[in-house]
Q: What sequence folds into this?
């Protein structure tokens, strides 16, 4: 469920007409719903009720400070994958002891910043990283709390580019080598082992791969405890999918996911961490764009819109589907027609949808790309010298620009010209 609904013939974000925001901000822009963000966070928190747990929002999904602050005030921790995300979370008021640092390529500078600023744990992904972290911690006179990310070689049955738990993926250490690597960590003076980490992929629509991986983690927990390690925290990653199309079968609910976690891991008495991103932010955001031209081609009509692949790259990168709807509600029974919806970037890949049935549209009409809150704004670029588009947050009948559109002068003036020119 989200809070983007038609009211009185027009699409609203909570209690604000989308067209009103478009008139004030200009198109294209991202638009987020506070109520949807909070509802989706609460679903995960409630799903783990009765267990010692922390829901750490995976801020790579949507990292605007206003979104982070909204979720942090509700009690969320943060999962970060770079020092930039760490500093962004801290700037949004998230305390270090509620930040988990993931990622396969942490530098020693990033480790130092997090250790000095405060960190809940590092999710370590390799032996070289473990050795580097130990050295940094010792140089600072600190001890780094860690989990080790294990790769369970479980097929998440998701898109190849977002699968992370197979043996051929770059993430984690093979679960078969876990005892060896934990023994190495246990001998390091700058390292404190607090638990185990696992994350098998993103946009999963079936609980079976999760359960398979979590049962392996349960077995590993017992083994490592028998080896003398104090395994008291299990970081289970994120990855639960969202319904990108209204017609598709809905993925499992957070409540079902929570029940499965309790069933497979509850007997261990560990604190549970989960790191949802997409399910919290995905349906909490839309991208709003305006039709520039209707162009008739050979056997097809093109809707050329002012949004482009640099603004929302998921369709070009993943062949991802986003439902596209007109901002003005079509009349009941209106005959639809197929369009190719494309942007102005000079790439054939700048195509959002092919032969998508929509009500008749014309130049100037507004459309909304649904389920665009995750991996939309954060993956945007200035390709073709197109400014990053604004982000807007709605709460009830209020809206605020939370990232303005840069001017062309601001973009151009970031360049520096060498003296010899």
A:
């Amino acid at each position: 469920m989200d809070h983007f609904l038609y009211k009185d013939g027009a699409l609203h974000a909570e209690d604000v007409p989308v067209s009103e925001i478009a008139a004030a901000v200009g198109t294209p822009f991202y638009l987020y719903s506070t109520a949807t963000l909070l509802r989706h966070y609460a679903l995960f928190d409630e799903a783990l009720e009765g267990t010692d747990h922390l829901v750490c929002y995976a801020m790579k999904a949507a990292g605007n400070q206003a979104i982070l602050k909204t979720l942090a005030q509700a009690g969320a921790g943060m999962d970060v994958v770079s020092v930039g995300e760490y500093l962004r979370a801290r700037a949004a008021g998230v305390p270090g002891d509620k930040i988990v640092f993931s990622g396969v390529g942490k530098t020693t500078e990033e480790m130092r910043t997090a250790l000095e600023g405060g960190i809940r744990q590092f999710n370590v992904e390799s032996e070289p990283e473990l050795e580097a972290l130990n050295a940094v911690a010792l140089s600072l006179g600190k001890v780094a709390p860690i989990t080790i990310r294990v790769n369970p070689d479980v097929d998440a049955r998701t898109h190849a580019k977002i699968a992370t738990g197979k043996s051929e993926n770059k993430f984690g250490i093979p679960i078969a080598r876990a005892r060896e690597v934990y023994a190495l960590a246990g001998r390091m003076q700058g390292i404190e082992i607090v638990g185990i980490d696992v994350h098998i992929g993103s946009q999963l629509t079936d609980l079976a791969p999760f359960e398979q991986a979590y049962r392996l983690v349960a077995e590993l927990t017992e083994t490592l405890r028998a080896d003398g390690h104090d395994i008291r925290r299990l970081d289970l990653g994120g990855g639960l999918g969202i319904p990108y199309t209204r017609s598709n079968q809905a993925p499992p609910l957070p409540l079902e996911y929570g029940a499965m976690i309790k069933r497979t891991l509850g007997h261990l008495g560990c604190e549970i961490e989960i790191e949802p991103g997409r399910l919290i932010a995905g349906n909490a955001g839309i991208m709003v764009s305006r039709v520039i031209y209707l162009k008739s081609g050979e056997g097809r009509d093109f809707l050329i819109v002012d949004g482009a692949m640099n603004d929302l790259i998921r369709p070009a990168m993943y062949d991802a589907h986003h439902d596209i709807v007109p901002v003005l509600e079509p009349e009941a029974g209106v005959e639809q027609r197929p369009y190719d919806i494309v942007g102005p970037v000079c790439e054939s890949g700048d195509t959002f949808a092919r032969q998508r049935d929509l009500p008749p549209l014309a130049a100037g009409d507004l459309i909304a790309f649904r389920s665009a809150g995750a991996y939309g704004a954060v993956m945007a670029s200035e390709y073709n010298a197109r400014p990053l588009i604004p982000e807007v947050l709605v709460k009830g009948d209020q809206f605020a620009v939370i990232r303005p559109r840069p001017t062309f002068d601001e973009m151009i003036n970031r360049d520096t010209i060498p003296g010899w020119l």
